[in-house]
Amino acid sequence: MVGVxxxxxxxxxxxxxxxxxxxxxxxxxxxxxxxxxxxDEDGAARTQRGQPQxxxxxxxxxxxxxxxxxxxxxxxxxxxxxxxxxxxxxxxMFGHPYRAIDQGDGVAAWLTEAxxxxxxxxxxxxxxxxxxxxxxxxxxAFADSCPIxxxxxxxxxxxxxxxxxxxxxxVTLNRFRPNIVVDGWDEPHTEDRASxxxxxxxxxGFAKLAIRCAVTLVDQRHGVRVGPEPLRTxxxxxxxxxxxxxxxxxxxxxxxxxxxxxxxxxxxxxxxxQKHAGITEGRPFRKDPPALVDPADPPALVSSxxxxxxxxxxxxxxxxxxxxxxxxP
Length: 329
Prior knowledge:
GO terms for molecular function: catalytic activity; molybdenum ion binding; pyridoxal phosphate binding. InterPro entries: MoCF_Sase_C, MOCOS_middle, Pyrv_Knase-like_insert_dom_sf. Residues 119-268 form the MOSC domain. This is MOSC domain-containing protein. This protein has three helices and 20 strands. The chain has helices at residues 105-115, 153-165, 231-234; strands spanning 3-9, 18-20, 22-26, 29-30, 36-39, 58-61, 67-72, 75-81, 88-93, 96-102, 120-123, 148-152, 180-183, 194-199, 202-211, 218-219, 224-225, 246-255, 257-260, 265-270. The chain is mostly beta strands. The strands form five sheets. It has an eight-stranded mixed β-sheet. The chain has a domain at 8-123.
């Protein structure tokens, strides 16, 4: 039997997730997923790419979305009455402009203390419109792209088998921050080949492969980077044709409804036309692969949105594979 083994919503982008027994699937994804965004003084998004310590912040949101509680070790929790009527302000995420609702000075002061950098919290406005890309377009709040990220237990088991074969420690599921975890598929990466999925009364359409970035190098419990895994091993067998490494799949919502752990997952349409193709999958794992980054021809192993501070330049961002990039040692 193939079913939902886990449901995870991330109310504040970049912060810890909430494990759910049941939730609503909306057009924007799981209820309240990435509804809130932490920004700097200029309104630019803060994410784990630049501030891995965000992982130490644990959000909890009421089912109706009216009250958000933030907690972190060593600091008193903060309860926020969510405001959707305040004036809108301009923010940016990966260079793209959005409008958002600032949630006030109180939570801004709390976040500034928790993160150690001047920060504010904004919420996606009710009138938010955003079209996400992929084979099936959709909409989302402040997710990187598509509203739903699906990962299978079989895919993680296959990856960890390859990682441990190299003598490294396996990685945990939360490194990949999925929304829906599926168990019961025999083959790893079955999510890559599913064009349409039915879960309970809902329906999802495959949008694109999930290209992984340096967030996967962050220990989600402690909020620190501990690379090079899993990117190093993924680069040996999951390179995407368009650059980067892929693990998991992104889906758009075709039919909203209610979801629960234990719901059956049915593939109603497979990718028979190879529209999802583009992975160098099936190459045998080599215990001692060649160097992953050739200085003469550095491959793009992580997404273009991924930045690792180049310490030789005082912490300024550097493009993946460029000078100072340490995503793939």
